[in-house]
Write a structure and sequence with these properties.
The chain is of the alpha+beta class. The protein has 4 helices and 5 strands, in the order ααβαββαββ. The chain has helices at 2-27, 36-45, 63-84, 119-128; strands at 51-57, 89-95, 99-106, 133-137, 144-151. Helix 2 packs parallel to helix 3 and helix 3 runs antiparallel to helix 4. It starts with a helix and ends with a strand.
């Protein structure tokens, strides 16, 4: 009985991921059609605070992962502009055969915490839904550094 329940849960989780991917394809920014590098370049150029981008994508992630990466960077840059009192931010993105690594850093006041109901808590949930990880370093006085690891394939 337990094995059957586990198999059913596993099958349902796979079906849910397919539905999420299909939904994400429908709401992704058009710049992602060209690639994550182009989409992030546009995003960083429009940042409310001065930001730089360093990107090295050797293996293009699948569209659902590109979407998560894009929206993660977008939300983190928005948080920098709203809460950090930073003068500058930097975004670094690397992709190899297995993972996409993102890092957003700012020179603000620090103190970021993924409290329940916050945007950071929501990011953690979305990233973990595809077996990714978010690491946060934000001591009082700054800087804040958020590193994200995502699989290339969900």
């Amino acid at each position: 009985g337990a094995l059957e329940l586990i198999e059913t849960a596993h099958r349902n989780a796979k079906e849910a991921l397919v539905e999420i991917r299909d939904l994400a394809r429908g709401i992704l920014p058009p710049a992602l059609d060209v690639g994550l590098d182009t989409a992030l370049t546009t995003l960083v150029q429009r940042s409310a605070i001065p930001a730089t981008l360093r990107i090295e994508i050797l293996v293009r992630p699948e569209p659902s992962i590109e979407g998560i990466a894009y929206f993660t960077v977008a939300e983190l840059l928005a948080n920098v502009a709203k809460h950090s009192h930073a003068g500058n931010a930097s975004v670094e993105v690397k992709s190899n055969g297995d993972t996409v690594s993102l890092q957003v850093r700012d020179d603000g006041i620090g103190g970021a915490r993924p409290a329940a109901g916050s945007g950071l808590a929501g990011l953690v949930e979305r990233i973990q839904a595809v077996d990714g990880q978010l690491h946060l370093s934000s001591p009082k006085g700054g800087p804040t550094v958020i590193a994200v690891e995502l699989p290339v394939h969900a």
